[in-house]
Design brief:
By secondary structure, this protein is α/β, with parallel strands linked by helices. The protein is built from 5 helices and 5 strands, in the order αββααβαββα.
Length: about 140
């Protein structure tokens, strides 16, 4: 999660919402992502999506079976859907997102019977640091 927090800081430094994500296979990072919707003019350029794309390209496979995803914020519905489609084994996230999250909040996507793959989910990993980054980012805009 340390590396994901570094990526979140990189996003913050580019004036993006500070979220970072990593895809890990075994002990090797195969995908990295930092939020970039503004930079890329792409509403889908969330940290998780960018990390999944990089990992899939490196693997040569859209299914990332056996891979784990570390992300600093509870994924939204779009990202949770992508995580399910990628067949991520385990999801570790930092800060909960009561407004936009779709894993432990909102639609709780992985609990839906129509979702064909549910990763193991572990929330609260590095929560305090991730939440502080987000809080400071949004306070600076008020």
């Amino acid at each position: 999660m340390r590396e994901a927090l570094v990526l979140a800081c990189e996003a913050r430094d580019r004036d993006e919402v500070p979220v970072g994500a990593l895809v890990v296979r075994g002990d090797r990072i195969i995908g990295r992502g930092a939020n970039a919707p503004r930079r890329d003019h792409d509403p889908t350029a969330h940290a998780e999506i960018l990390a999944l794309r990089q990992a899939a390209a490196l693997s040569g496979d859209d299914r990332l079976t056996g891979c784990d995803l570390y992300v600093t914020l509870e994924p939204c519905a779009m990202c949770a859907g992508a995580i399910a489609h990628a067949r991520i084994r385990r999801l570790y996230y930092g800060a909960p997102d009561p407004k936009g999250g779709a894993v432990a909040h909102g639609p709780r996507l992985f609990d839906q019977p129509t979702v064909h793959h549910q990763p193991e989910v572990y929330g609260g990993i590095g929560e305090e640091e991730a939440a502080d980054l987000l809080r400071q980012f949004f306070q600076s805009r008020r």
